[in-house]
Write a structure and sequence with these properties.
alpha+beta; DNA-binding
DNA sequence: CGGCTGATCGTG
DNA sequence: ACGATCAGCCGA
């Protein structure tokens, strides 16, 4: 079994670079019976903390909800939005900075993902930040989880070259003014599991 | 297939 | 009030 990406990986200074490097890594969340449920990360976004108008920690805003994002790198930040969805983030070293996992390509446990998501095409199982949390059973109980622990982790999987990476604007943050234009979203070129972005 | 809308609730 | 969203419905 491949080695887990460790705290050192997540504790480097450049959160944007970490978001880029997470493409092609395997995200694993074992189920209650210990079976591996996993997917390859195909889309990420960097949130740059206190200087980023789109970030929960913009301006140093610190609440019970976003507390974990101020902690050390290599931990999970899960939050609840729109009254019904969770979103998965990995904390990096700088205060309030995180990488949002926006989409994965199912690899192991696809039948279990289908049970959780209901009847639908494979392409739709995990192609969005809220969808993948349902498919992997990620909720508030994983907030603050250690990525070196046994409840959720990341592994080396595929090597993604720069020619296979597209860089663009982040999604769903129109309120962030000029920071909505920052090129802090990364995805794998042509991968069908990348989220369908509805522009406005 | 693109656009619109209702669902639903913790946080501030 | 209002989201780092999604599914279902509508009309074309």
């Amino acid at each position: 079994m491949p080695k887990k990406l460790d705290h050192e990986f997540y504790s480097r200074e450049d959160t944007v670079q970490i978001a880029r490097e997470l493409l092609g890594k395997l995200l694993v969340v074992p189920d209650e019976e210990g079976r591996r449920i996993s997917g390859m990360i195909v889309e990420t976004e960097a949130y740059m903390g206190v200087i980023d108008k789109a970030a929960h920690s913009y301006g140093g805003r610190r609440t019970l909800r976003n507390e974990v994002s101020y902690g050390p790198g290599g931990y999970v930040y899960v939050f609840f939005v729109y009254g019904m969805y969770f979103q998965l983030n990995f904390v990096t070293a700088e205060p309030g900075q995180v990488v949002l996992i926006r989409a994965i390509e199912p690899v192991e446990g696809i039948e279990i993902m289908k049970e959780r998501r209901g009847p639908m095409k494979d392409m739709n199982l995990t192609s969005g930040p809220g969808k993948l949390c349902i498919a992997l059973d990620i909720d508030r109980s994983l907030n603050g989880a250690d990525l070196e622990g046994n409840s959720i982790w990341t592994e080396e999987f595929r090597s993604i070259t720069d020619t296979d990476v597209i860089v663009g604007k982040r999604v769903g943050i129109d309120y962030a003014a000029e920071d909505a234009e920052q090129p802090w979203r990364f995805w794998i070129k042509g991968n069908p599991y990348v989220s369908k972005t509805r522009v406005k």
